[in-house]
Design goal:
Layout lengths: L1 E5 L4 H11 L3 E4 L17 H16 L3 E10 L20 H11 L7 E12 L2 E13 L15 E3 L6 H12 L1 H14 L5
Parallel strand pairs: 1-2, 1-3
Antiparallel strand pairs: 3-4, 4-5, 5-6
């Protein structure tokens, strides 16, 4: 079993990644490696934040690792909340406040198209790789469902009529932005790199 250090303490993200990775991999989070500090996301892009977190773990703890940053990009709001997805309604990172603000900001907009985008930064030795996954969809008129986390109760993925929070883990593990990026991670990890 291959051990992977995931530069996160978000149990929901770790769970989603583990579902996609399968039984051949064991995830260790920041807490598992003794990193208890909050790694501040100070970059202005998802790519920048993912690299920042992975580089921090590599430099301070010496582990090859991967990190992920994801954002919800809403067309009618010029791509907002984007890199500020987790703190859209303020520094408390409250999911309900974030969704309420987003729904208010979309009042009167007929275009409710959106996409979730995830970027994974993988560091192996001195090699850095960026991988991306995108899930297109639209924002619902109100919150629906109780599964998942974050904006799942208001995001309806393309090809479905229910939100991620109604569809549950099985569907999300197949089609989500994080699942798509994680499958690319698996491809990279299983490639014969000549070592």
């Amino acid at each position: 079993m291959q051990v992977l250090v995931f530069a996160t303490n978000n149990a929901h993200k770790a769970h989603e990644v583990e579902l996609v990775l399968g039984s051949g991999y064991q995830i260790k989070t920041l807490k598992d490696i003794g990193c208890l500090e909050d790694i501040e996301e100070t970059e202005n892009t998802l790519e920048g934040n993912a690299l920042l977190k992975a580089r921090y773990v590599k430099e301070k703890y010496g582990y090859d690792c991967f990190s992920e940053d994801a954002g919800l990009e809403v067309a009618a709001l010029d791509g907002a909340p984007g890199v500020h997805t987790a703190r859209y309604a303020g520094p408390s990172r409250d999911a309900n406040d974030n969704m309420d603000l987003l729904l208010r900001n979309l009042d009167g907009h007929s275009d409710r198209s959106a996409q979730f985008r995830a970027v994974i930064a993988l560091i192996q030795g001195d090699k850095e790789i960026l991988l991306e996954g995108v899930c297109k969809g639209q924002i619902s008129l109100q919150k629906q469902g109780t599964e998942g986390f974050g904006y799942d109760p208001i995001f309806i993925p393309e090809g479905y009529e229910q939100t991620f929070a109604q569809l549950g883990d099985e569907v999300k593990t197949e089609i989500s932005h994080r699942a798509k990026a994680t499958r690319k991670l698996v491809e990279v990890l299983t490639m014969d790199d000549g070592r």
